[in-house]
Amino acid sequence: MNAESTSSKSPNSDPNAGLQSPRLRRVLKLSRVFRIICWIMMAGLILAAIGVSIPQIQKLFTGGDGDAQTPQQAFFPAALFLHAWWFAAIWFLERMFRSFSTNGVFHPSGARYLKWLGFWFLLSGCIPLVLGMFSFAIGNLRASEIIAILAPASSPALLGAIILMIGWILEEACELRAEQELTI
Amino acid sequence: MSINVRLDVLLAERKMRLNELADAVGITVPNLSILKTGKAKAIKFSTLEAICQALDCQPGDLLRFENDDSSKES
């Protein structure tokens, strides 16, 4: 009789039960560190958004200088949008690390946030790509300008696609893990 | 189409409790409970061997195949 392999742990006892291997313990520790980094980055983004907004708010109260728009005023909504965009991306990252450190690596919520992060990066690369191509098609941009847009935008798009793919793999791993937990 | 685990029937026939079987086999009670309630997705040969030895039965006594399709048709 070979019962030593059958004395497995209860599947519902501890979500971090699988974090016994050194590699997974390292992931757990790093997740905590990365969460702190994410908080710092989010705080930095909030401060930067406030810094961008203060001159505009001041102008709102002081009346500004008529209809003439300064470059800062013209780019203010875009700057705020970019801050919000990257804040959301870091928030997904923080949620993912939070899920890793509380539920363990193989949990559907971690995979879900990783997929969202990938989707966010993909979108942040694809939007400039599509807009750039459209501007090029209607003749607003020259070939040299379109290359200047496409080159930096392709990196986040590629990164997003890779992260999205890893998210799918992690989702598959979660299903395998759930199945393995129900193997007695 | 499903595989039914008749662990409860075998335990009742032998007047054995789940925790006694767990001690004899070396599996935790929650895991045995998962097996008993039919929630398990798979069973290892080593577990099957251990249960069969503890209950003095054959794998066929523990597992039953039921064809749901045929029962629906009739």
List keywords for this structure.
heterodimer; A: mainly alpha; 4 helices; B: mainly alpha; 434 Repressor (Amino-terminal Domain); two-stranded antiparallel ribbon; 59% helix
Q: Span from first to last CA of chain A?
A: 15 Å
CATH architecture of chain B: Orthogonal Bundle
- Major sheet details of chain B: 2 strands, antiparallel
CATH homology superfamily name of chain B: lambda repressor-like DNA-binding domains
The pLDDT mean of chain A sits at 82
Gyration radius of chain B (Cα, Å) is 13 Å
How far is it from the N-terminal to the C-terminal residue of chain B, by CA?
14 Å
Number of strands of chain A: 0
In short:
The complex is a heterodimer of chains A (about 180) and B (about 70). Chain A has about 180 residues and is mainly α.
Furnish the topology, listing elements before pairings.
The complex is a heterodimer of chains A (184) and B (74).
Chain A: H1 22-62, H2 71-103, H3 108-137, H4 143-181
Chain B: E1 2-5, H1 7-13, H2 18-25, H3 29-36, H4 45-55, H5 59-62, E2 63-66, H6 68-73
Antiparallel strand pairs in B: 1-2
